[in-house]
Structure formats: structure tokens, C-alpha cells
Amino acid sequence: MCGIVGLFLKDKALEPRLGEMLTDMLITMTDRGPDSAGIAVYSEDREGRAKLTVQADDPGRFDGLGDEMAQALGCDVTVRVKDTHAVVDLPEGRMAEARLALKELRPEARVMSAGEVIEIYKEVGLPGDVAKRFDIPNLAGSHGIGHTRMATESAVTTMGAHPFSTGADQCLVHNGSLSNHNSLRRELAREGVSVETRNDSEVAAAYLTWKMQQGHSLGDALEAGLDDLDGFFTFVVGTKDGFGVVRDPIACKPAVMAETDQYVAFGSEYRALVNLPGIEDARVWEPEPATVYFWKH
Amino acid sequence: MQTFDLEANGLRALNEALQAQSQHTNEIAWEVVNPRGSHAIAVGLDAPIEVTVKGSTGYYCAGMNKQATITVDGSAGPGVAENMMSGAVIVEGDASQYAGATGHGGLLVIKGNASSRCGISMKGIDIVVQGNVGHMSAFMAQKGNLVVCGDAGDALGDSIYEARLFVRGEVKSLGADCIEKEMRPEHLEILRGLLERSEIDAKPEEFRRYGSARKLYNFNIDNAY
Fold this sequence. Notes:
The complex is a heterodimer of chains A (297) and B (225). With 297 residues, chain A is of the alpha+beta class. Chain A folds into 2 domains: 3-45 and 140-296, Aminohydrolase, N-terminal nucleophile (Ntn) domain (Glutamine Phosphoribosylpyrophosphate, subunit 1, domain 1, 4-Layer Sandwich); 46-116, VC0802-like (2-Layer Sandwich), CATH 3.30.2130. Chain A is 25% helix and 31% strand. Chain A has helices spanning 18-28, 65-73, 95-105, 127-133, 181-190, 200-213, 218-228, and strands at residues 3-9, 36-42, 49-55, 78-82, 85-91, 110-115, 118-124, 143-149, 171-178, 231-238, 242-247, 256-259, 263-267, 283-285, 293-296. In chain A, the strands form 3 sheets. Chain A has a 7-stranded antiparallel sheet with strand order 7-2-8-1-13-12-14, with helices on one face. A 4-stranded antiparallel sheet of chain A has the order 4-5-3-6, with helices on one face. In chain A, strands 9-10-11-15 form a 4-stranded antiparallel sheet. The longest helix of chain A is centred in the C-terminal third of the chain and has 14 residues, at 200-213. The two termini of chain A are 31 Å apart. Chain B is an alpha/beta fold and 225 residues long. Chain B has a single domain (2-214), classed as Pectate Lyase C-like, CATH 2.160.20.60. Chain B is elongated, with a radius of gyration of 18 Å. Chain B starts with a strand and ends in a 13-residue tail after the last strand. The interface between A and B is medium-sized, with 15 and 16 residues.
């Protein structure tokens, strides 16, 4: 089944409340998927800085990581540890070196996301527990996406949880199942695009990243996905300044959207949206099958 | 008027209270407040009572209804009025997918638009939609009437057995074995009655009728894959 939520803020005054609103929406969707939960948040753009969100089962592994990374890269690096995740803050443009250094220094650490503004927190467990562990309600940001998983493809692990991020500041959550992910995975591998898990949704994320690397906009990449991805899907995707939604042509997987002057919101069900400010007067609709919806800051 | 606060008292208590009403109950009028998109509101009713839900509902609202008149003063989630036997369900806003699925009787009125698969496998229910319906509506419909005052999406009436489909606007495409049929006086009469009962102001003469070509009734090797 799976539950998806998303919130794209137009009104800056709501930004301090992003984490709190997303958490509330995701907890409402708990009964759509108890296996794992995750949230991607796009936070304030700090000029000249980038960040890497990494995960290790034992947070003790992050001890001293900031200093070691700073020494390896020869620049200012700070590390903020949150339970099993750590956000490595580093100068923009040093991401590739930072990933190599991380592989050297902490080979067991797993990268959740990389980019200028994105942070991803995901773990096995219920949304309420995951949000609490990572203090999600206190995260501010301009937009964010959440997922609570009922596994239909691949193992219930931290890496199998959504959102999946396969490119800088990109992420994807998926409700559904793809039938051609193995062949697509092989095709992407031939193009030099690799994925880390056996999960079908990660292949969809990688496909979109690959399309965008070829110069497509996210909107165009999603259009192309309608031809190349076979199966059932409702996708909600995020980029540094954008938020998109698309459903397959059969559109079995549920989706409800709401828009006001303050935000665009997505929920697998309407009840995920009922606590949003001004929802009584929002334009509420179901996204049409095989139709790409996209908003940009 | 009985007012039931769903948030304060919970779904189980609501459905127990409504299902406990007998044929001769004096508590005819019920109002449900704070539905907040909850699932399975007012299901399995079997008494001539009137229930108004003040807000939008989640999955399967008014499912398996008999005798009751249930009004959703908002929009309804997937499967509203599924398997209705008799009575009426009125949705003031939009309805999500498979509204009125497998219904055997009664009247479902949707004042806004209905999503995909409206009236899938309908078995005698009457469905009147003031707006549009989505793709695959009346898929495998067996009996009853589907009235669409707006447009219909792809594959209307796919694999239809019987049932009458009336559409005022455009039909994007017809499904397998669904064809346009002649609108005879008796059909105009049926349609006029349904529009009147639904309190929808539309002229029966503006509609076209669709139904089964009855070519899939018997096995034909040319239809096999």
C-alpha cells in the first residue's frame, strides 16, 4: 500500500513549521505502511555550502568524523549527529572529494542524500518513532516529502526505505510497484548509472536522475517516465527548488492534492491534509492519470 | 436531530448507533460532524434514516447501504456507496475512484465530478453524476443506469454486459463492446425520472445513450488473445 505526503510552501512564513506539518501528515498515513518511514526536507540555502546526509547503525561511528573530514579535504567541515544519521556540512563544490573521503574514513557509512539543501532521514519503524528519533518536527524548510512503507519489493531495511536520492538535491517517493525495474536497472547500468539496492523505486529515482543528467527538465523526465516505466506508480519528487507529482495511466494508487496561496500539498488520502491551515477553502483535487504536475519556487 | 461527533466518539460507536436503528425508529435525522476524511463512515445501514456527513470522507463511505439516505456535505474518497442495495447517497462535492461499484440498487448522486471506474460492475444501481467521470467508468456494468451530465473519460463501458449509459458531453473513447445506441422514448422517460430525482437541471434530449453490442456474450475465438 504505502503512504506518501508532500508539502511545497509558497508562503515563507510557514517555513519554520515545515517539519511539524509534514510529520503530522505522515503519522496520519501510518496505517498505509508500518515497515519503514522517511522524510526529505529542503532547508535554507546557505550560500557556498553543501551537505551530505550519512547513516551508520552505530552513531558512535561518527565520533571525530568532522575533524577527520576537515583534515582530509583541507577545508572547514562540521558534522551534526542525529541518532543514526549525521549531516556533514562542507563547502560547495567539494562534494565528490567528500564522498571519496567518507568512503575511506567510514566505509560502513551509507549516503542518504547529497546536495546544497536536501537532508534525508529514514529508518525501519513507524513514522511517529522515526520523526521523534530525528527531531523532524523542529526542521524548517521550503518543501519536503515523506513516505511510510509497506514493502512489496526488496528487503525491509534502512536502505530500502524511501525517499530515494540518486542525484544532487533530488529525491523520490513511490507508492506502487514497477514491473520492468530489472531490465531498466540493466539498461541504466550500461549507461553508467548504478543503484545501491534491489528496490524498484530506486530504479525510478535513478531513471529520472539519468534523464536530467541528459539535460531534461524534471517535468520532461517525468513525461519520459510515463513511457519507460511499466507498472503502478504514484510518484512525488523533489528537486532543489521544485516539487512534482505523476501517476501511471491506470492510476490505481490513490492521490489527493490541495492548493492554497500558502502551499501545495500531497497526500495518499485526504485525511493526511485535514490539519493544514486553510484546508477548508483549498482547491482539492485528484491528479489525473498520466499527467505531470510540477511547481517551482 | 441527533448529532454525532466522529472525532470525539469514534467510528465504531457511530456505525453501531446507526446500524442499531430499526425500521420504525423515531430518530430519523442524523448529523455526523468532524469526519476529517475518515474511512467507512455510515456503512451497512438498514433503516429509513437520513444521515448528513458534514465534511469530506475517506474510503467506502455509505457502503452496503439499504434504505438510508446519506448525504456527504463535502467530497468522498474511493468506493463511496459501494455495493448499495437501496436508499440514496448524495455527494455534494467530488467522488474518488469506483463510486457506486457493484451496487445492486438505490440512487447515487454526485454533484461534482467522479473519478475513474465510476459504476464498475454495477448490478442495478442508478448513478447520476453532474460533472465528469474518469476512465473505465461502468466497466463490466451488468444492470442499472449511469447518467453523466459532463464528459466521460477513456474506455467508457468497457466489457459492458447490460446497463444503460447516458452521457451529455464528450466521450473520450468507448471500451470493448460498448456502442452508441438509439435514444427511444422509454429511455428519455427513464432519464427524465433520474434527473428529477437527483434534482439536476438538464434536458434528457441533450444526452446520448450507450450500451452493450452483446458481442462478448458468447465465446468467440477471435476475441481470445
